[in-house]
Each structure stands twice: as C-alpha cells, then as structure tokens.
Design brief:
CATH superfamily of the largest domain: Vaccinia Virus protein VP39
Oligomer: single chain
Strand content: 15-25%
Distance between the termini: 51 Å
CATH topology of the largest domain: Rossmann fold
Shape: elongated
Number of helices: 15
CATH architecture of the largest domain: 3-Layer(aba) Sandwich
CATH class of the largest domain: Alpha Beta
Length: 352
C-alpha cells in the first residue's frame, strides 16, 4: 500500500512539473527546475530555465540556476558563459559567483576560480561549501601528486572539512566500515589501535568504545587539531603514514585506514609497514576507490579529482604477499562526486 501511494505521488509530481513547463508562472517554472536539479535531471531542469529566459531574457535567477545545472552536469564552458552574463547584469549574486568559481576550478583556471569563490564567500560568509572550494583552489597550485599538496589541502580546509564531506558529498566511509566491523568482528575488543589518516576523527568516534588505547595519525596539523576536539584519541601524531610507521616500535590489535589510499599511488610500502605492525590475528580495515577491471593498469589517477583508484585484484595481491587474510571486501559508494556515487570498497583483513 505504501509503495503504491509513493508511486502515485511521484506520478502526480511529474504531472505538476510538466504542467508548470507549459503554463506555469515564472516562479513555478523556476521551482520545477530546481526540483529536477535536486533529482540530478539537469537537462530537464535547463528546459524550465530556458522557458523563463525566453520570456524574460534578463532573469538572473533563471541564469544562475541554469549555470548551476551546467556545472553539475560537467558543461563548464556553458556554465561560464551564462554565469558571466548573469553577473554582468547583477554582480552581487553569491550562488552565481560560487558556481562560476567551480567551473573555473574544474577547468584548472585557478586564479579566476579563486577570484569568484572569494567574492561568493564575501557575499555569503556562512556557506561552508564555498569556503571549502576556495581553500582547495588555493591549495591547487601545488603538485597534486605530492604529499605537500595533500597536507596543504587539508591544512587549509580542515575547518570546513566535515560540513563539506558529510553535508554535500554524503560521505559515509566510517559508518560503512563500522557496520562491517560489527558484522565480522562481533563483540570483539581491540586493546591497542591506531587510526591512520584519522582526519578530523570521524572513524575514531565510531570505534572508540571497542578500543583500549586509540591513537590517531594524520599528515595535516590542522586536521589533527580538529580531531583533538572530539576527545576520542589517547594520542594524536602529525606525520605521513609510512614515515610514522617506520619509526613506530609498537604492534597493534587493529589498524584502520579509511579514505587514505585515495592519496597514495603505490600501496606496497603501506601494506608492508602495516603488516609489520599487526599482531598475529590482528585486524586491518581500509577503504579504496575501486578501479574497474577494464583498465590495463592496477592504479589510475582521476584527472579531475586527483584521487587514486586501485583494482581489487591489486590490493588482494598485496594482502597475500604480506600475510593478510581477507575477511570481507564490501562494495558500496562511500561518497558523491558531482552528484554521482563513487564506486568504492571497504575491506577487512586479518594478519595470519
């Protein structure tokens, strides 16, 4: 009965949206377009904005909404063209500056991106997403394959990191990993644990109650400062993953490493060091962005996000090489990118 009711409601909404295009007021058409944008039906949304612009060629609301749909659908040149026109008519529209800034950022035109994102932040200081993109644009002048880039990125963005990740990218890595640990390691307590790449402490919050001593480590000083505020770690350290482990004389009952390998190309050194620091029978829980088997290489760097994707067969080879027995490899999107789910995996292995 509930499913039938939902289907009926969707049909009614579709009829209302269609009628808005052919006879609705300007506001009804703008609202209908915005509703379609939220459903990621960007081409359909643009039709409604165009219908408004056909009647009111200088309607800046329709212009910046159309530009936002172009950005969301990766049509950056079209977005820049319409948003420039919009801002020429009315300069103080924060969403227009935000979206043209994103378009320039995606085209790697960073000075222009920074200019518009700064203006958007000035007009709407409460928008944490604008601040995040502004700081990452400023960090983007560094070589994106380098440790320096990752550190600079998160040092700048730490203060707005969680708002962006949880609020806009629907990030759920720690949540999914926590559920897997409950399913596959039920009622287990881990006396000595380290959370590698702990960030602001999202994973630490999830596992605190099943840990004795919980350490956190991250490359970014600013992220560690944010993690301190959660008061879940017994110790926090600033270092790169391999540098820290190479100088750490401890062994662990569990090591977690969520949303970290996306910044590391060759994972062999990481697997080798992690394996050395696991006690026999200890758990290693990590995530990765999944590389499709159609690719020839085991590793691929996404040119837009600069994050690394790895084949499942590659990490399975490394696990076998370094004495790690797979417990589970769970496939689930852990975040959105431009509104689309990013294929990912959460993996739990045990030291033999």
């Amino acid at each position: 009965m509930n499913r039938a009711l939902r289907r009926q409601q969707k049909k009614m909404q579709a009829k209302q949206t269609k009628s808005a295009l052919h006879g609705g007021t300007v506001m009804e058409r703008l609202n209908a377009g915005a509703a379609l944008h939220k459903q990621r039906k960007y081409a359909e949304a643009v039709k409604y904005y165009d219908s408004v612009l056909a009647e009111q060629p200088e309607n800046t609301d329709a212009m910046f909404l159309k530009g936002a749909s172009f950005v969301a659908s990766n049509h950056y040149d079209k977005a820049i063209e319409i948003l420039k026109h919009c801002l020429n008519l009315k300069e103080d529209i924060a969403p227009a500056h935000h979206n043209i800034g994103l378009a320039y950022k995606e085209k790697n035109m960073l000075p222009q991106a920074i200019e518009h994102l700064e203006r958007a932040a000035e007009l709407d200081p409460s928008n944490s997403l604008t601040k995040f993109h502004l700081e990452t644009a400023k960090a983007g002048n560094t070589d994106k394959s380098s440790t320096e880039y990752v550190k600079n990125l998160y040092d700048r963005a730490a203060g707005v990191f969680e708002d962006n990740l949880l609020g806009h990218l629907d990030y759920k890595g720690p949540e999914v990993m926590w559920k897997l640990l409950q399913q596959h390691c039920p009622d287990q307590r881990f006396e000595n644990v380290i959370d590698l790449g702990c960030g602001t402490g999202l994973m630490g919050v999830k596992i605190r109650d099943i840990c004795g001593t919980l350490k956190g480590m991250d490359l970014s000083d600013s992220m560690v400062e944010e993690a301190k505020k959660k008061k879940v770690y017994d110790e926090l350290h600033v270092a790169s993953l391999t540098d820290y482990l190479e100088n750490d004389g401890n062994t662990y009952d569990m090591i977690t490493c969520v949303d970290v390998f996306i910044y590391i190309k060759d994972l062999e050194a990481a697997f080798e060091e992690i394996s050395k620091h696991l006690k026999t029978g200890a758990i290693f829980a990590y995530s990765l962005e999944k590389l499709d088997d159609k690719h020839d290489d085991d590793i691929w760097v996404d040119p837009k996000t600069h994050r690394h994707k790895h084949k499942q067969s590659y990490v399975r080879m490394l696990a076998d090489k370094y004495g790690l027995e797979e417990i589970v490899m769970h496939e689930e999107a852990l975040r959105l990118e431009h509104g689309k789910p990013v294929p990912s995996s959460c993996v739990i292995v045990r030291k033999k």
